[in-house]
Amino acid sequence: MRRTTVATAAALPLLLAGGLLAVTGCDAEKKSQKAELSVSGAYMPQPAMDDMAAAYFTVKNDGGKADTLTKVTSPLSQDVTLHTTEGEQMKHAEQLEVPAKGELALSRGGTHLMLGKLAHKPKEGEKIEFTLHFAASAPIKVQVPVESATYRPKS
Predict the structure, then answer these.
(1) What pLDDT does residue 29 have?
(2) CB 111 within 8 A of CB 117
């Protein structure tokens, strides 16, 4: 009987360590199954009109799970909408996917934001606040610089 107790007592730390490793492994696996979002390259060309503007940026996802951009808000406009471009046709989008280990690129001639009913006409050098809202991830606030109307980001 004593040998069994000693053997069990000696094996207990190994069993616990194995259990802890399994739990740690699960935690690491869960982390890799989350979206890890960041925003870069944001800009707004100085609008030509007083009541309408567009904005562009890239949402990068380094995580192992996709997320969805569901809306964008800004103090500049209560009317911020997501759009895609198919051929020459601009279409309203309810949401945009940010793929796992990928990115969502908003750019001229492609997917972009439209702002209507502007609170004021932004001027070059100004920074406009945007909040990006996602289906699963926390919102991200971005300060978007207003660039010249002809600005083209370096590739």
Answers:
(1) 53
(2) no
Kind plus residue range of the DSSP H or E element containing 7: helix 2-32
- Yes or no: say if 43 and 35 are a contact pair by the CB < 8 Å rule: no
Specify the 3-state DSSP secondary structure of 129. strand
pLDDT for 5-42, tens place per residue? 444 444 444 433 444 434 444 445 555 689 999 999 99
Q: Are 45 and 107 in contact (CB under 8 A)?
A: no
Beta pairing class for 96-98 and 67-73: antiparallel
**Quick one: tokens of 92?**
């309203």
CA 60 to chain centre: 6
Helix (H, G, I), strand (E, B) or coil at 60: strand
- Specify burial of residue 54 (Cβ count, 10 A radius: 0-12, 13-18, 19+): middle
Q: Which residue, among 56, 57, 30, has the nearest Cα to 136 in the 3D structure? A: 30
Residue 86 near residue 71, CB atoms below 8 Å: no
Q: Is 109 exposed, middle or buried (0-12, 13-18, 19+ CB in 10 A)?
A: exposed
Amino acid of residue 40: S
